[in-house]
Amino acid sequence: MENGVCVGGLTDGGRYVRLLDNGGSNQPKDTSLAPLQIWEIDYVAKANTRPPHVEDVVVQTMIRKGSLNRDANIEEFLKVRNVPIWRGTPDMLFDGLVQWTLKGSGYIDAVGGVPNHSVGFWISDKPLYKTEYEGSIRYKYRFDIFDINGRSIKYKGFEDPVSQIPAGTLIRVSLARWWISPSDNSEKCWLQLSGWYNL
Question: Which of 133, 156, 164, 166 shows its CA 20 to 30 Å from the CA of 61?
């Protein structure tokens, strides 16, 4: 993000958290936080969160405890903590509340309904293919070989993009912060893809 890094986490009890600094802002771009790390963190919930971004917490103290192995079975890690995983097409994401533009970008808005959280995990039933559009990297899902637009999800992660994310891969998805689209002057949260595991 322009003003820092959006860092998501998962408590040992399976609660999603978004780790803000002690001033309530995003983590700095040079943050020491990285995927698969284990931390002991004291935090307080951020006041006045706006759904679906209810995961925001303000970090008070943090102590590094180690890391998960890159080859660890993250899907099993999530199951043990009763973290739900969406399976199938992108239309399953966020309780089916994602709407799609004609070009395939996903979003939620107040009219179509707001889910009760803004992050989640997904296992796609088809591969996702890397494309580039207007200077950004996106991953495209096609329902069949004749599907021109399909579903197109912007990539906002740290790992080097891969040409294809195979079907059956565990993927992390999220909804960006509320933003007023200049094309129609309406407030939306856009769907984005931020990482994958055990690829």
Answer: 156
